[in-house]
Amino acid sequence: MSKSSRYEWRDQQAALQERMKGFLANPNSEQMEAVLAEMRAYADAAQSGHIEIPQRWTSYN
User: Fold this and answer.
1) What is the mean pLDDT of each run of 10 residues along the chain (61 residues)?
2) Among 42, 39, 50, which residue's Cα sits nearest to residue 4?
3) What is the spatial distance between Cα 61 and Cα 59, in angstroms, rounded to a whole number?
């Protein structure tokens, strides 16, 4: 996986996590739709090949 692919994947993950945090902080239908839209965008990007999802990764959290 190239460095730019890794950054794209990381950016997609960060956007999805921020949407999820927004929903958890204020669970309403508008926030839920935003989370679903972000998840659909992530899935579409992965299916079309615009982002590469790593086979393995190490989390240091």
Assistant:
1) 77 87 90 90 84 70 62
2) 50
3) 6
